[in-house]
Amino acid sequence: MKLERNLLSVALSSAMLMFAANVNAQTAGEDDTPAPAAQGTRADDAEAVDLDRVTVTGIRRGIENAIETKQSSTSIVESISAEDIGKLPDISIAESIARLPGLAAQRVAGRSSTISIRGLAENFGTTLLNGREQVSLGHNRGVEFDQYPSELINAVVVYKTPDASLVGQGLSGTVDLQTVRPLSFGERVITFNARAEENSLGELNPGYDDRGYRISGSYIDQFMDGRLGVAVGYARMDSPGQANRWESWGYPTDNAGSPGNFLLGGSKSQASSVENVRDGLMAVVEFKASDNWTSILDAYYSTFDKSETLRFMETGLAWGAGTTLSNAVVEDGQVVSGTFSGVRPVLRNDRNTQEDELLAVGWNNAFEFGERWSGVADLSYSKAERKEMLLETYSGLGSASNTRTDTVDFVIDRSSGLPTFTYREDYTDPSNLVLTDPGGWGQEGFIKFPEVEDRLASLRLGAERRFDAGIFSSVEFGVNHADREKTRRSGLEAFLRLPDGEVPIPADALTAPVDLGFTGIRGSIGYDTGAVLPLYVIDEHSHSDIRNKNWTVEEKLSTAYAQWNLNTDVGEVALRGNIGVQLVHTDQSSTGFVVPFGDADAPIPMSGGAQYNDVLPSLNLSFGFPSDQMLRFALGRQMARPRMDDLRANRNISIRTDRDPNGQWTGDGGNPELEPWRATALDVSYEKYFGGRGYFSLAAFHKDLHSYIYKRTVNDYDFSEFDPRGFDPVSDLGEFTTPENGQGGELYGFEAAVSVPLDMLWQPLDGFGVIASYSKTKSSILPEGPDGPDRSVPGLSEHVSNVTLYYERQGFSTRVSRRSRSPFIGDVVGFGGDLGTRYIGAEDIVDFQVGYAFADGTRLEGLSVLLQVNNVTNEEYREFYFDNGLAQTYNEYGRQVLLGLNYKF
Known about the structure:
With 905 residues, this protein is mainly β.
C-alpha cells in the first residue's frame, strides 16, 4: 500500500482514538472553545480580527490559525495561514493550496500553477483577492497562482459551499487570497527573507544558470494611537527552471515496416532552460477614521518575466518523408525497437519570452450606523497583460532536396515510454550542419507575438441589520456590479526564410552543444538565436487559425444578494449558519472575425452576445454538539461562466464537395450566446475539534450539473448570409461545429482529513504532528457530449491525498510532505497556443523542510534559518495518448534546493 494511505490510516485511527476518549487538550490559559467569528462576518474577516490573539509560534501557529478559521466559519471551508508574515512554507502559493483536502495542483513547466477543486479544473472555480474577483493572464478564466508570491499572502480560505454574501463565487469552489490587515497586529513588525536556490539538473543550456535566489521584506506599523495602520511587502524571485523533455508525434499503425502495430511516428528530444524573474509588491493602508468608519486601501502589483531557450532534435520516423523501418521488434502490439533509415533530423534552437504584468487595487469602507446597522462600500480594479514572443529556428544536414540522410536505432523503455536513440551522424559538429529546412516544412523558422489583456472593475454596496433576539442574528443585503473585458491578439505571425534556402551557421553565433543523453543522443548543435535572426527574411503569415486568435469578450454582471444569518440554540445544540439568495444578471458580448473559405486576408468583422438571469439560493447550517463536535449541511445552486475562448465571436466558413458535387456548407467557431455551467450542490460534513489544536473531518458532496458545455455539430445552420464564391450549394443549410449548452451529469465524492499533534496521544511525542487528507471523486459527466468518448471531466483525479509529518520544539522544526493525485485529464496549452486536453499521469510530489529559530533573549533573537528541498524524488511529469495509452510526453524538472534565513524585528 502506498505511503500516503498508510500514514493517512494511522492519522485517521489516531483521531478516532482521541474521539473515543473525548480528548479536549488545550494550551495553558485558553478557553474550552475557540472564539467564533463575529456575527455577520465571513471566515476571512474573523481570521483578520483574531490574528493578534495567537500565542503559539512557528508551524503550530499557522496550523491553529487555519483550524480556528475552519471551525468558526458558517460555510464548509478549508484554510491555510502563515505561521508569521512572509512565512508560508512553500515557494508558490499554489503548492500551499494544493495541500488542502479535495484540492490538487496541475504542474506547468515544472511549477504548480493551476488548481482543481473537487475534481473540476480551474475554469470551474473563481479566485478572489481580499474578497474581490481577479483577472487572469491565460486565455481563459483560470488564475495562475504562481503569479502570487507566498511571501505576500498571509492566509487563504477556500469556500466549498455557496454563500449568498460571497460575490463572484465559482461552481467547484472559491479561493480567497488574503493580505494582512495592519491594525490587527497591534505592534510594529519588520521581516526579511532571503533564500538561495539550486536546480539539481544543472545548466542544460549555456547561458542559463542553475542557481537563483528569492528575497522578500515586509513592514507593518500602526500610528495615531492605533487608528492608522500601514503594511508594505516586496518579494523578488529569480529562479532557474531546467527540464529534460521528450515528446512523441504519435503512433500510427498503418506503417509499411510493421503494419497493424503501433510505431513511433516522430520524436522530439528537448533540453529546456528557463529564467523566471518575478517582482511582487503589496501595500495596505488601514485607517480607522472614527468609531463608525474604517477605510482600507490595498494594492497588489507584480511583473513576471520568463525567458526560455529550447534546444532539441526533432525527427520524423514512421511519419518522416522517405523513411524505412528494419529490424522491428514487437511487444504487445507496439514496435519497441528497430532501425529507421532515410531520416532527416531537424535541429531546433528556439527562444520563448513572456512578460506578465498584474495589478489589483481595492478600496473598502465599512460604516457603523448606531447599534444595529452597518454598511460597506467596496470599489476595485484589476488588470492583467501578457506579451509573448515565440521564435523557432531550424538546422540540419541539408534541405529536403538534398539526398543526405541518416540512420537511427531506437529502443523504447516499456515502463516509462521513453526511447533511447543511436544516430550515426555527429550533430554537434558545425561543419556537418547548416541553417535550413531539413524537414521539408516549407520554412526555415517561425516567429509570433501573441498578447492577452484582461480588465475587471467592480463596485459593491451592502448593508447589515443586526437583531437582539430571535433565531436570526442579522440580515445582509447589497448589490455588486462588475464589468470585465478580455482580449486576445495573435500579433505578428511570420515564416522565417533564408534567401538561398540554407547558410552555414555563423561561427560567432555558436555556443556549446546541448546534451540530450537522457534519450541516448550525444548532443545537438547550439547557437545564439538572436545572433542568427538577422539572416532571415520575415514573411508575414496569414491564415484562418491566426484570425481565430483575435477576439474580445466583455461581461457585465449585476448581482443583488440577501442573506439571513442564523445564531441560536436548539436545546443543547448550537445552530449557526445562513440562508440567502443571489440574483445575477449577465450581459455578455464578443467581437471577432468570420474567415470565409480560408481567406484570412479578407476577414469579416462579426459580433454577438446574450443576456440571461440566474437565481442562486443557498443554505448553510452548522450544528454544534458537545465535545467540540460539529455537523454541517449545505444546499445551493452554483454556476460557472463559460470559457472565454468558447465565447469568442469567430467563424471559419467553407464549402466541401466530397459529399455533394454541388457543395455543402460547413464551418466552426465560438458561441457568444453560451450560458453557464449550472449545478445544484449538496454537502454534508462531520467535524471533531480537539481544543483548537487538532481536528478530524469527514465530508461528502454531490453536484448535479443541469448543463454542460461541449462541442456539437449542428446540421441545419443557416449560411445564407455568406457568398458561396463560385459554388452552387443545393441548400443554404449546412453543418456547423460550435460549443453548445447540453446535457449535464453528476459529480460526487467524499473527503477525510485530520490534523493531530501527537502529544495528545502520548506525551513523549510532544512536538510531533501529522496533517493528512484523502478524497475520492467520481463523475457521470460526458465532457464531449452524449455521443463523445467516455472520459472524465478536466481536472478530475479519482484519488487525491496529502500527508505532512512535522516536528517542532525548542526552536527546531522539520516537515516532510507528500501530495499525490491519480491520472487525470488536464487543459494544456498546445501547438498554436490554444488549450487542448491531455491525459496526464499520476504524480507523487515530496517536499522537505528543516529549520531552526533562535530563542528570545539570545543574541540572534528573531533570526531563523531554513533548508528546503522541493520535488525530492525528481518526480517526472507524463502525458499519454487517449486512444492507445502510449507515452505522449515525458518531462523531468529536477529537484529544487533552497537555503535561506528569515529575520523578524
